[in-house]
Write a structure and sequence with these properties.
The chain has four helices and no strands. It is mainly α.
């Protein structure tokens, strides 16, 4: 139940990650590592989605 609540709180960030270019994802990962934050499983999955080129 707690994991679901955390996923809900991070949903906007997760959607942002899923739709962001690789540079933003790389920066996000570096900042998370620096701060010692662990990405949720849904965020990890979002990071693996290939960005769409426009």
């Amino acid at each position: 139940m707690i994991k679901l609540r955390l996923e809900k709180e991070n949903l906007l960030d997760t959607v942002f990650l899923a739709t962001s270019p690789i540079q933003i994802r790389t920066l996000w990962r570096q900042v998370s590592d620096f701060l010692g934050d662990e990405l949720s499983q849904l965020q990890k999955s979002a990071m693996e989605i290939n960005p769409v080129s426009v």
